[in-house]
């Protein structure tokens, strides 16, 4: 199964339209991959809190429409990273906000097959908790891989600090976790550690796609990575924009779990 992580760099000068055009061109270049992943909030800007409301969209807005077409044209399963979602229905959340940090996933025909609203909001008293509602649903999506498939648990950036969420995804059958992110350089050591920790403790692949470049006065950390279910780093990006293209073998999950059956020793 061939996976591409598009570690995108952007700055404050680029318009949303120009960024969407650039991103969908990069997605189309990944034809031949089974799964392509983009970072968190690449359209609105991961740390551009002040812009989030004006850049919010329904999942069927301009970003979603462009991603759907790119997935179809490239013939790839596409995790489109996340958008600042403002549902066209006027829905509000339990805390009264009308915004969510929502991941959008398309199959190779361009159909929106899953959405995931980020459960753990980053920013303490500011940022996401101030502006957005928290998601409440765990989401697993099965990505076709040749004659079989890979069960992928969805998560976003700051979620990686909450191991109980990944255990819950494991209990829903996850064999891999996708982690789109806008994680800053200042804490990149923690990012690299946490990705491997989640892989080792749950014996799952971790496919983590971070942001690069500097926006909203925040330097992003890069270091997107693909981690095997035994914890080996199969590929890791540097600090600049880069596409990581990696072959993974879904049967490695079963092999690791059989040869070192630590999950069978859980005491609930
Ligand atoms: N966008 C995020 O969730 C950032 C998370 C982060 O910087 C951290 O957990 O540290």
TrEMBL record:
<dbReference type="Pfam" id="PF00795">
    <property type="entry name" value="CN_hydrolase"/>
</dbReference>
<comment type="similarity">
    <text>Belongs to the carbon-nitrogen hydrolase superfamily. NIT1/NIT2 family.</text>
</comment>
<dbReference type="GO" id="GO:0016787">
    <property type="term" value="F:hydrolase activity"/>
</dbReference>
<dbReference type="InterPro" id="IPR036526">
    <property type="entry name" value="C-N_Hydrolase_sf"/>
</dbReference>
<dbReference type="InterPro" id="IPR003010">
    <property type="entry name" value="C-N_Hydrolase"/>
</dbReference>
<protein>
    <submittedName>
        <fullName>Putative amidohydrolase</fullName>
    </submittedName>
</protein>
<dbReference type="InterPro" id="IPR001110">
    <property type="entry name" value="UPF0012_CS"/>
</dbReference>
<keyword id="KW-0378">Hydrolase</keyword>
<feature type="domain" description="CN hydrolase">
    <location>
        <begin position="1"/>
        <end position="250"/>
    </location>
</feature>
